[in-house]
Amino acid sequence: MNSRRAELLMASVSLAWGSSYFLMKIGLDGIGPYNLIALRFGIAFFAMSLIFLPRYRQLSAATLAKGVFTGIILFLIFYGMVNGVNHTTASTAGFLTSTTVVMVPVLESLLKRTLPSKTIVISILLSVAGLFLLTAKDGIVFDTGAAYCLTGAFFYAVYIIVFARLAKGNDTLLISIIQLGVASLTGAVFMFLSETPSLPATLTQWGAILGLGLICSAYGFVVQPIAQRYTTPEKIGLIFSLEPVFSALLSWLFLHEILGFKGYTGAILIFAAVIFTELSRKTAR
């Protein structure tokens, strides 16, 4: 697999995650947030374990430890996102959750002790401007929920960088599957501590939970580490900024929500950032 195919694969993951917003909205209508985390990642874990059961023969203590470590980070991402959505405005949550696009190159620069390239800096500025126009319809409110959203965005940046290192090994698939189980188990612990465990009450809610489990979690969090083997964390962060664009597109298709001028301008800026990065890479060749 070359870098272009890997990035297209990651774009498909962003599309899958773009559907998670309205699926989570449906799912949270009947069950608690930690209950939802436990269910979606539990479904993903069992589905992927059944498909790749023979791979468990290669399981080692080191692979298990990596899976547990990334699984805890995965839970922390959704701990921040779920609590952020519940304690702040949708505009604030949508924008601050997407600040991962800025955090990834900053953390990478600190680790490597080098500055990001001009191409990455320009692309990030375009993405941030686009994300603001697309998501911050009612302005940004810095409250408790905003802190949770930034926490989720930070841990997602950490997750991207950690997997950039782990994805170089041959045990990436097993790590990806194990992390789903760990995230589900951690969510279940929080569920029993702070919620009343329950199951979805309607077929619509079950459909949303299954969609979150099989498409957004099983596909998304197993394919991303594989794609990361062939591209950089900075580019993964930029492609991640496409998620709210896909979310808006799906909301328009299925919920008939209209973006408006600012929203469409924001979407164009985000696409421009990704295209600019690709064109710059071709010029460099």
Automatic annotation (TrEMBL):
<feature type="transmembrane region" description="Helical">
    <location>
        <begin position="34"/>
        <end position="52"/>
    </location>
</feature>
<keyword id="KW-1003">Cell membrane</keyword>
<feature type="transmembrane region" description="Helical">
    <location>
        <begin position="119"/>
        <end position="139"/>
    </location>
</feature>
<feature type="transmembrane region" description="Helical">
    <location>
        <begin position="261"/>
        <end position="279"/>
    </location>
</feature>
<feature type="transmembrane region" description="Helical">
    <location>
        <begin position="88"/>
        <end position="107"/>
    </location>
</feature>
<feature type="domain" description="EamA">
    <location>
        <begin position="145"/>
        <end position="277"/>
    </location>
</feature>
<keyword id="KW-0812">Transmembrane</keyword>
<dbReference type="InterPro" id="IPR000620">
    <property type="entry name" value="EamA_dom"/>
</dbReference>
<protein>
    <submittedName>
        <fullName>DMT family transporter</fullName>
    </submittedName>
</protein>
<keyword id="KW-1133">Transmembrane helix</keyword>
<dbReference type="InterPro" id="IPR051258">
    <property type="entry name" value="Diverse_Substrate_Transporter"/>
</dbReference>
<feature type="transmembrane region" description="Helical">
    <location>
        <begin position="205"/>
        <end position="224"/>
    </location>
</feature>
<dbReference type="InterPro" id="IPR037185">
    <property type="entry name" value="EmrE-like"/>
</dbReference>
<feature type="transmembrane region" description="Helical">
    <location>
        <begin position="145"/>
        <end position="166"/>
    </location>
</feature>
<feature type="domain" description="EamA">
    <location>
        <begin position="6"/>
        <end position="135"/>
    </location>
</feature>
<feature type="transmembrane region" description="Helical">
    <location>
        <begin position="64"/>
        <end position="82"/>
    </location>
</feature>
<keyword id="KW-0472">Membrane</keyword>
<dbReference type="Pfam" id="PF00892">
    <property type="entry name" value="EamA"/>
</dbReference>
<feature type="transmembrane region" description="Helical">
    <location>
        <begin position="236"/>
        <end position="255"/>
    </location>
</feature>
<feature type="transmembrane region" description="Helical">
    <location>
        <begin position="173"/>
        <end position="193"/>
    </location>
</feature>
